[in-house]
Amino acid sequence: MELLNIQQIEKYYGNKSSLTKAIDDISFSVSQGEFVAIMGASGSGKTTLLNCISTIDRVTAGHIYLESTDITTLKGKELNKFRREKLGFIFQDFNLLDTLTAYENISLALSIQKRSAGEIDTAVRTVAQQLGITEVLSKYPYQMSGGQKQRVASARAIVTNPKLVLADEPTGALDSKSSKML
After folding, report:
1. pTM, 2 dp
2. Predicted local confidence at residue 170, as pLDDT
């Protein structure tokens, strides 16, 4: 079953005097359960593409469908609901909240979804065990290694069981064993 369909998207930055084309007419689809890696030189538009798919950034032209929903047309509450319920994103620089513990960072998305405390605790502890980060659940980001932060960020992205997980260099801070685990 087709999960994601990208149709002729383009993304421009700047204005007429200084226009940069970051994405040039890209089309592809991803089936449910499929893993896709996007590779290219630094500055080739990989992160911009992920930002457009995740609705962090808007496309200049084209359409992006998740299941049958054109996410390029979503606004306001619909957009927030899409991000909250359908998407997990693992950022290259972790984007953990410094004032929250690992447990709190992971559980935040479940709290926003108004899940019960028991459901949140079970989900957080399960994903932490799967990623080998149970021992850092009570720590703050400044107390963790880069690899631990990356696994906490990964746990946060997958704990809600989203339809789509987007990851920007998710194994960049991990050793080979942790990369394989992720």
Report:
1. 0.83
2. 75
